[in-house]
């Protein structure tokens, strides 16, 4: 059954857990998420980026979500636009049946140039007005996602902004967050608290203080009814890096956000945790392994089935670790 982000996250807040939000681009990823959800009885947030929509085609993606919801009638499914870059992207997502949209007004419509605060407020407010009229939830974003370690902000193409930002400039300002939510009416707010997108988050093993927990806590205290969202929340597990490298890959040693850190965030109001990279690593590792071990194999199912299984395992782990298991 379809459900909005607001409904899902209100329930999560009431019961002190968070929902992982997994990105999809194809059928195997959709099936992996639903198989995992069914196995542990978790509600689901499936999200599609603009890249996913153009890769899979909007019609294909929309019908796929319909199919997944029909195959798993007991699992509540929220279909979310990840990193919408403007009102048009959000509007067409709604036309295709998405029950939630992210208006990422922290960047301009090119999804590269940092936006002014006033632009962010205006564009997000406009999307909230439109989406809420359609019964659709809205996630906004305030602050520059980037690594505290490198001091670099990050554009959505994964390349750092020019110039080095100070520690404070990389974190969402709580006063501004309060005003932003008041002026826009967003249901959920993505905040910058020390994570970045992709596999290369930290160059050393994090010592336990990778997230700006004080910022999360303060924003949660002052905005108890706004659900906080953590982007860039892949844990980049060592064993997934190792499988890729063992079978011909070349992933330089890297570290992600430890699951225990995410669990601390969940204690302070984080309700949606975006995970894409971990699933990409799991899929790629499984495919590399099969193609290496069975060089004679050319039936795509021979490697796509293990790839789906590897992603299912990651999703199932996150449902349990973030506490959404048992809440479908
Ligand atoms: O934040 C971005 C997500 O990982 C989706 O990535 O834009 O390459 O589809 P994508
Ligand atoms: P990761 O790259 O850490 O998986 O983050 C994904 C994300 O934030 C999608 O919006
Ligand atoms: Na999102
Ligand atoms: Zn993101």
Describe the secondary-structure layout.
Blueprint: H1 5-14, E1 19-23, H2 27-40, E2 44-48, H3 50-56, H4 58-71, E3 77-84, H5 87-95, E4 100-103, H6 117-133, E5 137-142, E6 146-147, E7 152-153, H7 174-184, E8 188-191, H8 213-222, E9 227-230, H9 238-246, H10 259-266, E10 270-275, H11 277-293, H12 300-321
Parallel strand pairs: 1-2, 1-10, 2-3, 3-4, 4-5, 5-8, 8-9, 9-10
Antiparallel strand pairs: 6-7
The structure holds glyceraldehyde-3-phosphate, 1,3-dihydroxyacetonephosphate, sodium ion and zinc ion.
Notes on the structure:
The structure is a single chain. The chain is of the alpha/beta class. It has one domain (5-321): Aldolase class I (TIM Barrel). 45% of the residues lie in helices and 14% in strands. The protein has 12 helices and 10 strands. The protein has helices at residues 5-14, 27-40, 50-56, 58-71, 87-95, 117-133, 174-184, 213-222, 238-246, 259-266, 277-293, 300-321, and strands at 19-23, 44-48, 77-84, 100-103, 137-142, 146-147, 152-153, 188-191, 227-230, 270-275. The strands form 2 sheets. The protein has an 8-stranded parallel beta barrel with strand order 1-2-3-4-5-8-9-10, surrounded by 9 helices. Helix 2 (27-40) crosses helix 12 (300-321). The longest helix is centred in the last third of the chain and has 22 residues, at 300-321. The protein is globular, with a radius of gyration of 19 Å. It starts with a helix and ends in a 7-residue tail after the last helix. The mean pLDDT is 94. The structure holds glyceraldehyde-3-phosphate, 1,3-dihydroxyacetonephosphate (13P), sodium ion and zinc ion. Glyceraldehyde-3-phosphate binds at residues 23, 49, 51-52, 82-83, 197, 276. Residues 83, 197, 231, 274 line the site of zinc ion.
